[in-house]
Amino acid sequence: MQRFEERPLLEVENLTKQYGPGCDECGQPGRPGLIKNYCPSCGTVYACSDVSLDVFPGEILGIVGESGSGKSTLMQCLYFDQEVTAGTLTISDPELAGENLFGVSSQRKRYIRNHKYGMVYQNPVKGLRMDFSAISNIAEKQIAAGGRHVGNMQSAGERLLDVVSIPLFRMKEEPRNFSGGMQQRVQIAKALSNDPPILFLDEVTTGLDLSVQAAVIDLIKQIQRDLGISMIVVSHDLAVIRMLADRTLVMLNGRVIESGLTDQILEDPHHAYTQQLVYSLL
Ligand SMILES: Nc1ncnc2c1ncn2[C@@H]1O[C@H](COP(=O)(O)OP(=O)(O)OP(=O)(O)O)[C@@H](O)[C@H]1O
C-alpha cells in the first residue's frame, strides 16, 4: 500500500451548498427535517451538507455517488465555480497556508486556479477551446500561470502532449478533429501545464468506449506514479473509482455516508447504499 505524508495537502471542513433560504426546520444541526436533500418546509435543496474531506500529497481521493448525490457540486465548490454557503478550505502551501480559501477574493481564487489547480471536465468542451490548436490550448494555461517565454512554453507543451500520447504531428490541429479519448488526453495535458499540486477529474471517462476508458485510466495512474500529483476523482461508477482511488468517499443526498481506504470499502461496505454499489460490481 502507498504511504502518504502525514499532513493533508487539501482539507475541507463542513462544506455546505444550499439552494434556497433555509429555515428553522432544515437549519438545525444534522438537518433532521430533510427528505433526501430537500426541505419540504421551505423548499431549500442542500446539494452538499457538512461535507468534510482531506487529500494527502500524492494521493488519489475518489468520490462516488449516484446522480444528484452532490458530487459535481462538491467539485465545483472546490474549483471555485460555485460559492459555498458555509465551510472552510485550506491548502498546505507556503503561499496559501492558514487561509480559508472559500473566503478569499475572486482575484485570489483565480490565482489559485491558475497556479495550484488543474481541472479535467467530463465534457471536453468545458475544458478546451475547440477552435485553438492542441498546443495553443496548453499555451493558454501556461500564460495564465505566468509563462511568457515562447520557446520554453512550446517545448513544455510538446513534452506534455508526448506524456499523454498525442502524436506531435497533430499538435497544430484543433481538438474538434480529435476523438473523445484524444480530447480527454489534451484536457489532461492542459490541466498539467501549470505543474499543479492538485488535479480535479470530474467523470472524465463517462461516455467513452470501454477500451478508451481503460487507456485514460492507465494514463491517470501513470501521471500519479510519475508526477506524484494529488487528485480528486469524481465518478458515479465505482468500477472507475476502484481502479484509481487510494481512498474513497461515498456520497448520498449531499452527505458523505461512508469513507475509507478503497479496498476496505470494497471488502467491507457498511452503509446499505454502499453495499448496493459494491454488489453491482459483481
Ligand atoms: N442551481 C441549482 N438549483 C437548485 N438545485 C440544484 C442546482 N444545482 C444542483 N442542484 C441540486 O443539487 C443536488 C446535487 O446535484 P449535483 O449535480 O451536484 O449531483 P451529482 O451527484 O453531481 O449528479 P450528476 O452526476 O447527475 O450531476 C441535486 O438534487 C440537484 O438537483
TrEMBL record:
Protein name: ATP-binding cassette domain-containing protein
Keyword check for NAD: no
Domain ABC transporter per the UniProt entry, residue ranges: 10-278
Annotated GO MF terms: ATP binding; ATP hydrolysis activity
The keyword Oxidoreductase is assigned to this record: no
CDD domains per record: ABC_NikE_OppD_transporters
Keywords: ATP-binding, Nucleotide-binding
Pfam name, any one: ABC_tran
A biological-process GO annotation: organic phosphonate catabolic process
Annotated SUPFAM superfamilies: P-loop containing nucleoside triphosphate hydrolases
UniProt-listed PANTHER family: PHOSPHONATES UTILIZATION ATP-BINDING PROTEIN PHNK-RELATED
InterPro entries according to UniProt: AAA+_ATPase, ABC_transporter-like_ATP-bd, ABC_transporter-like_CS, P-loop_NTPase, PhnK
